[in-house]
Amino acid sequence: MMTNLFSTFDPATSISASLNWTSTFIMLVILPYTFWMMPSRQSMVIKLIFNKLHQEFETLLSAKMKGMTILFISMFSFILMNNLMGLLPYVFTSSSHLVFTMTLAVPMWLSLMIFGWLNQTQNMFAHLIPEGSPPALMPFMVCIETISNIIRPGSLAVRLTANMIAGHLLMCLLGNSAASANMLLPMILGAQIILMLFEMAVAIIQAYVFSVLSTLYTSEVAYENAQQSPLSLSGL
């Protein structure tokens, strides 16, 4: 019996040690077995998706940072796995918690900031003032660009968390209303099926958006550095 609407996202269990977070990594245990199996249509589709993602991320990164596409494809796969598993019954939705999303966003953003400010300090200062800004607005542009850089990991994390929470709350509301409905039960079931399909699309889109925005932030920080310095972000 749910005490409130948000109890769906409660990670606590009746045992002393919570096992809900194990659903986040359960697919990582099963994944290595696919390398010992014969190629199938499923593996071919997954490889095709990874190749398309590699081509998409490669266009956003410079020539010396193409190796980072492996990092962003892995991030996409990990987020997508947890988003889709959260739609299964009695499976903990880890991607609806800021602990999960901030763990992905903050280390990525912090590593990019440290790398950029240590190796290309002049260009990092130049990025704080957009090209063509009036001299009178330059101090304000520096403040605005600084704040926008600081809130980037928070925007990535909150975007993913809010989208996953919103869909689950709608499904929870429809499920509670279906228990007391009589004549409207077929209509509510049809709405739940449509909402489930919509949430599957949201799970895929949010994983893609998170990975693409991380790629764009990487290209903005290290674009000039990739042209002038022999170092590349693939060494991080």
Describe the overall structure.
Helix content is 66%, strand content 0%. The protein has 236 residues and is mostly helical. It has one domain. Helix 4 (98-119) packs antiparallel against helix 7 and helix 7 (152-180) runs antiparallel to helix 8 (185-228). The longest helix has 44 residues, at 185-228. The protein is globular and about 65 Å long. Mean pLDDT is 79; it is low at 224-236.
Defining key terms:
236 residues, mainly alpha, 8 helices, 66% helix, disordered C terminus
Low-confidence stretches: 224-236
Structural class: mainly alpha
- What is the residue-averaged pLDDT? 79
Count of distinct structural domains: 1
Question: What's the gist of this structure?
Answer:
With 236 residues, the chain is mainly alpha-helical. It contains eight helices and no strands. Helix 2 (41-60) packs across helix 3 and helix 7 runs antiparallel to helix 8.
List the helices and strands and how they pair.
Blueprint lengths: L25 H5 L10 H20 L8 H17 L12 H22 L1 H6 L11 H13 L1 H29 L4 H44 L8
